[in-house]
Amino acid sequence: MSAVFSAKIAQQLLEFTPKAIGFPLAKLPFSFKAKAISQLLGLLLAEQAADDELGFLTDKWVAIQVEDLNLAFEVSFNGKWQVRELTDAQVAFSANSAELILVAAAKEDPDTLFFQRKLSIEGDTELGLEVKNLLLSIEFASMPTPIRLSIAKLAAVIERLQIEAKPTVILAKSPSY
Predict the structure, then answer these.
(1) How is the beta sheet containing 62-66 ordered, strand by strand?
(2) What does this protein do (predicted)?
(3) Per DSSP, what are the bridge partners of residue 66?
């Protein structure tokens, strides 16, 4: 298979897959998505909740927008996770799913993505930094095994596709006269 053909397929997979996932996701009732998000946050941040490290989220709302999945919601923590549709968050994070998966797998740094304009953070800067630091405090190895393995495999596929999608430069030899 030619390098150009392979790069085009990789690029199409990176673009099409989130759309293919986003379509049925959009059909689910928000209450179902909210319950799943709340449960996932409860699993991922159980240690931080037990250590009372989530107090800064009391009566504060953080918006998360996964742009390529057309998924948007707000979260808060008042002793338990609350999830609602977008209304009026103090800070908003937005990125595509691939970047968020790479951050979750500790394969990409959120600051790097921010400066590359692949991650947007708008609103209350102090709250945004606290949320970013909270997320960075999650030890990848301590995540529940099914979640950790799923994220690791998705990240590996994304990294491979990103490598394959990069255009290959072919240098032709100059004719010698």
Answers:
(1) 81-84, 71-77, 62-66, 91-95, 119-123
(2) Required for O(2)-independent ubiquinone (coenzyme Q) biosynthesis. Likely functions as an accessory factor.
(3) 71, 95
Fold assignment, 30-159: Nonspecific Lipid-transfer Protein; Chain A (3.30.1050)
How far is Cα 174 from Cα 141, in angstroms, rounded to an integer?
52
Which residues lie below 8 Å from residue 59, measured CB to CB, with a gap of 6+?
Answer: 76, 78
Whole-number Å distance between alpha carbons of 60 and 5: 48
Token pair of 43 as six digits: 């699993």
Mind listing the pLDDT tens digit for each residue in 97-156?
999 999 988 899 989 999 999 999 999 999 999 999 888 888 888 888 998 999 999 999
Question: Mind spelling out the 3-state secondary structure of 12-53?
Answer: HHHHHHHHHHHHHHHHCCHHHHHHHHHHHHHHHCHHHHHCCC
3-state secondary structure at position 152? helix
Query: In terms of C-beta density within 10 A (0-12 exposed, 13-18 middle, 19 or more buried), how is residue 37 classed?
Result: middle
Cα separation of the two ends of the chain: 33
pLDDT tens digits, 13-66: 888 888 888 888 999 999 999 999 999 999 989 989 999 999 999 999 999 999
